[in-house]
């Protein structure tokens, strides 16, 4: 049975992993800190780690990407996209008016993860502008705090899974500002993962570090992909952390390393004097709502 390191029970990461694995059994090892999630697999205490790396609204999760590049050497084995659906959660009875209807003006504090709160600003401004906003370690932790502090007028922004775990009420569903709020996750581990479902497509993630003082480096790198008609779904520059002004390029290619074209492109890029590191070549899955 797979041992999977993941953020706390009831987070979007937890929901996303359940979607990916479906009915396949696994043992979840939950951690409050993403660094502990990484270290668990690095130390061999888990077979895989679930890492959120990109969000529709907030873009790249730079901290997590830096961990993949600088802190650990664990290949990506799988990618999937899952909706980040947040809800307003609390004890419904605390917020009823004399007519028995929900009255969000009774909310004194709303807690959630620091990424989730900004994604729900329109709802908060419209229905609970008076509420104090507090960031905590995860959406699941926010629900746990609300559960342990009844009668305080506190609510949490979190997942349906977290509400069920702590037996609290979903007072408002889908409170994010945008309906297209999706998160891209990767499963990292030393071994390939075999799932029952067919992949939607294949992808390879690579790091390219050009030599110093190389005029037109990015243009020549991209040309190696362009004339082979290899589709790039993402390109991002990040500091190498070795010297001011030195950057590497993180590139996602919609192609497998099993093909002929991608290894040839990498060989051409290396011939230019660039360092190339393959972070993983893996299947990708997309949530369809089913």
UniProtKB/TrEMBL annotation:
<dbReference type="GO" id="GO:0004664">
    <property type="term" value="F:prephenate dehydratase activity"/>
</dbReference>
<keyword id="KW-0028">Amino-acid biosynthesis</keyword>
<dbReference type="InterPro" id="IPR018528">
    <property type="entry name" value="Preph_deHydtase_CS"/>
</dbReference>
<dbReference type="InterPro" id="IPR045865">
    <property type="entry name" value="ACT-like_dom_sf"/>
</dbReference>
<dbReference type="Pfam" id="PF01842">
    <property type="entry name" value="ACT"/>
</dbReference>
<keyword id="KW-0057">Aromatic amino acid biosynthesis</keyword>
<dbReference type="InterPro" id="IPR001086">
    <property type="entry name" value="Preph_deHydtase"/>
</dbReference>
<dbReference type="GO" id="GO:0009094">
    <property type="term" value="P:L-phenylalanine biosynthetic process"/>
</dbReference>
<dbReference type="InterPro" id="IPR008242">
    <property type="entry name" value="Chor_mutase/pphenate_deHydtase"/>
</dbReference>
<feature type="site" description="Essential for prephenate dehydratase activity">
    <location>
        <position position="183"/>
    </location>
</feature>
<dbReference type="Pfam" id="PF00800">
    <property type="entry name" value="PDT"/>
</dbReference>
<feature type="domain" description="Prephenate dehydratase">
    <location>
        <begin position="2"/>
        <end position="190"/>
    </location>
</feature>
<comment type="pathway">
    <text>Amino-acid biosynthesis; L-phenylalanine biosynthesis; phenylpyruvate from prephenate: step 1/1.</text>
</comment>
<dbReference type="InterPro" id="IPR002912">
    <property type="entry name" value="ACT_dom"/>
</dbReference>
<feature type="domain" description="ACT">
    <location>
        <begin position="206"/>
        <end position="283"/>
    </location>
</feature>
<keyword id="KW-0456">Lyase</keyword>
<protein>
    <recommendedName>
        <fullName>Prephenate dehydratase</fullName>
        <ecNumber>4.2.1.51</ecNumber>
    </recommendedName>
</protein>
<keyword id="KW-0584">Phenylalanine biosynthesis</keyword>
<dbReference type="GO" id="GO:0005737">
    <property type="term" value="C:cytoplasm"/>
</dbReference>
């Amino acid at each position: 049975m797979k041992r999977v390191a993941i953020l706390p029970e009831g987070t979007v990461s937890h929901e996303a992993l359940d979607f990916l694995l479906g009915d396949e059994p696994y043992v979840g090892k939950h951690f409050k800190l993403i660094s502990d999630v990484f270290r668990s697999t690095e130390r061999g205490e888990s077979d895989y780690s679930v890492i959120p790396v990109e969000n529709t609204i907030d873009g790249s999760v730079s901290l997590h990407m830096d961990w993949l590049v600088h802190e650990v050497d664990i290949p990506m084995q799988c990618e999937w996209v899952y909706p980040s659906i947040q809800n307003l959660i609390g004890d419904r009875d605390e917020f009823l008016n004399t007519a028995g209807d929900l009255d969000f003006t009774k909310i004194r504090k709303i807690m959630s993860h620091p990424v989730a709160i900004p994604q729900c600003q329109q709802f908060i401004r419209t229905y609970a502008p008076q509420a104090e906003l507090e960031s905590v370690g995860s959406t699941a932790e926010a629900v746990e705090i609300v559960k342990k502090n009844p009668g305080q007028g506190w609510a949490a922004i979190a997942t349906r899974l977290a509400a069920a775990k702590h037996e609290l009420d979903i007072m408002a569903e889908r409170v994010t500002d945008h309906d297209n709020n999706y998160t891209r996750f990767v499963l990292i581990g030393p071994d390939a993962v075999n799932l029952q479902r067919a992949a939607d497509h294949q992808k390879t993630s690579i790091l390219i570090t050009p030599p110093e003082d190389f005029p037109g480096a990015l243009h020549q790198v991209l040309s190696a992909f362009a004339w082979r008609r290899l589709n790039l779904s993402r390109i991002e520059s990040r500091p190498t952390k070795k010297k001011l002004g030195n950057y590497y390029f993180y590139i996602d290619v919609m192609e497998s390393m099993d093909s002929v074209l991608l290894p040839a492109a990498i060989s051409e890029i290396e011939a230019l004097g660039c360092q190339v590191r393959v972070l993983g070549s893996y299947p990708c899955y997309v949530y369809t709502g089913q």
